[in-house]
Amino acid sequence: NSRGAASLLKDSIPITEFSASGPFEGHDLLRRGFRSVKSELLPSHPLELSEKNFQLNQDKTNFAMLRNIQGLHAPLKLQMEFRAVKQVQRLPFLHSSNIALDTLRGNDECISFEDILNDPSQSEVMGEPHMMMEYKLGLL
């Protein structure tokens, strides 16, 4: 057969054509996973989207101001430092405070919501150390 496996796959009928359509169509859990009502809803308040992107918007504003004051090199250097600091993490089963990133952003002396209500002993991150490391390394 001179036709390869790719052409056989291209000629095959997609599975989606066999699914039921219309108002009585069922949700296929195996292909699409569980439904999330939260993802289907619109933001409940106009400021919710702004609050989710607050840090990103603040960084963009600070980089623009820094570029206008000191030139192009300053925000590039700071962005490079941000990337380097974000790569340094603790092991996956230990809580990371990201103190270096907070110091670069100037948030190290501020007390915020996460400082009070983000107790690492109550977080769901703690788990089996060996399993979490194998997952992070792609062995599982």
TrEMBL record:
Transmembrane helix in keyword set: no
GO BP terms in the entry: proteasome assembly
Superkingdom of source: Eukaryota
Organism: Galbula dea
Pfam families: UMP1
Gene name as annotated: Pomp
Lineage, broadest ranks: Eukaryota, Metazoa, Chordata, Craniata, Vertebrata
GO CC, any one term: cytoplasm
PANTHER family associated with the record: PROTEASOME MATURATION PROTEIN (PTHR12828:SF3), PROTEASOME MATURATION PROTEIN UMP1 (PTHR12828)
Keyword Chaperone: yes
Protein name: POMP protein
Keywords: Chaperone
Family in the record: Belongs to the POMP/UMP1 family.
